[in-house]
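Extended Data, panel c. Modelled sequence:
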Amino acid sequence: MPLADPQHPEPASRPPRHGPTPTRTGQASEPPARTWGRKVLIAAVLAALTLGGNAGNIPLFFGVDYLFGSIAALLAAAWIGPVAGALAAAVGGLYTLELWGHPWALVVFTLEAGAVGLLRRRFPNLILADLAFWVAVGVPLLLVLYMGVMGMPAPQAGLIALKQPVNGLFNAALASGATLLLASRHWAPPLREVLFTLLFGGMLLPGLALIAFQSAQLRGEQHRLYDQLLATALTAVTERLDPVRAKTSLAASLPETVGELGIALADEDGEWITRVDTPAWLDRAERRRLSPRLLALLPPADARAPTMARWEEAYFSTESILPGGEGKRILLMHPAREAVLGLARANLRGHVALALLALTGLLIAAVLARRISLPFEELRRVTRNLPERLRKGEKPVLPAGPVAELDGLNRSFTAMGRSLAASFRELEAERQNLEEKVRQRTRELERLATHDYLTGIPNRAKIYEWLEVAHEEFRRYGTPFAVVMFDIDHFKAVNDRFGHPTGDAVLRELTLRVEDTLREADALGRWGGEEFLILARHTDCAGARKLADRVRQAVAVEAFRQVGEVTISLGVAEIRPGESLEHLLERADHALYAAKGNGRNRVVLYRETLQGDR
């Protein structure tokens, strides 16, 4: 700027904060009608930008988001006036009715823009005016609305009461920067205000970005873990569920190690056949797709319940067509409350640190802006009317420039970084703890999916998987193997006479006896009901027959508790070149039936003509 001339006093460095924009020299003022028309057009554009800014939100977690619409609303309040700012905020706040399910955010945002438009006359910039609103009105009002009117618990209401002011201050910093940038076309904004805006925005931006990034990462990890948990649980349920008696066996098919699982069965028309531990509002649930397999089921929208509260009552779910169930669909559900509250607690801790960062940043930005700008202001004061003062004999003393302020800024950033790092370590510990719990439950479910829940030995699917491996080794390398298929003689009579609990005990004891006779290379699995199958690796028919006879003797040599003597019949078949697994198992099954037909309690080796010996 040129030095002031004593005969031409220096004009004010900035215009009034409201009122018409100063015109350039030589330009006539615009007619009032044209000025109002331009203001209306600018207000309409800013209202549309407010709505678009809220629509382009950044979700933190279930029902909590960062919004950016108030940037345009605060610009309207600063450029046109409080009424225009309030109207723009009201238009943008309409989006929150759908996003959060209640009107109170619209009320708060409208009050914020209107109050900042009024307070802008008393404060040097938008940031301090916005801070004054949140401290005096915004935070208390949020607590009253969320805790008193909507009945939200204190931690969740506290999170909102921290998140919205921090979000609002960041938006005010962006609006202040935009105001200064556009105003610089007409007048030179004060250095202190420019530095304050840049420093505060620069300190707050990394904190918001880290909170948003960490929340997105933790939310995505939770979706992945619950997707894996429910998919594994669904596999276990499908393995244990009898398609014919699905309605009666539905509750019994639920794994015991997963916790509060709900399950429902629907016919091919989508009508529920039966439901176990599912909410009453399941038919009216709002379905949100979180991943290709993972769904979120939310309670029906209620004008009195915010979206965050609905998420606390929501369920993560997955669904599948029931194999062999004639088009029946099975739905598995897990409450989302633990995940929602866990993320709420983590975000509350992060926003406490972020709020402290914002307050500290305001103080540091104000101090640094003053310290850095003070020498320039002093220089301006000293050099004002310099020719006249020199003529009067004055000797102005020029101030020295600052050298140590950046060191203080660095120390402040380090301290705030440590505070944020501590918050993120807590977030990471929370994530790892949740991940370990899900991994442990997943391992248990994987075992349920591949092992028989009664005897603890591999189930049919697992033993068939091993058969496929052995068959491939035989096809490629010629490694022999055989199968021994056996079942318990007259087992139905045991159940009829002694009851199913005793029958289950017989199955468990028989499994232990058989396992004790097997080699390390052999594998035992439950084929179905009282029928079992042994995979005898690296064994020909003669070796498999000897193994089968040892198994038969181990079962028959000693009476079983409560039921007395128990015998088994066994069929043996060795793999042949070019033979499929299905044909091998069919031959073993024929040998088993031959053993039963020849008097039971015997081993039959499948040959072209079946012969058995005891």
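The two ends are 114 Å apart (CA to CA). This feature is highlighted in the accompanying rendering.
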